[in-house]
Design goal:
With about 50 residues, the protein is mostly helical. It contains one helix and two strands; from the N terminus they run ββα. A hairpin with a 4-residue loop joins β1 and β2. The radius of gyration is 23 Å and the shape is elongated.
Length: about 50
Amino acid sequence: MVLIENKELYYDYVASPEPPSEGKPLSEEVDELKQSVAELTILIETPQQ
């Protein structure tokens, strides 16, 4: 933002919107990612024929 009186740039921290809180809770996403990593690790470690 710009102050019109003296044309200085500034940032108004109060005016920034809250981040969206839609979707799954982060704890569920972390659990899913852990499961995915475990499955990929198993696939990588399995000997290929």
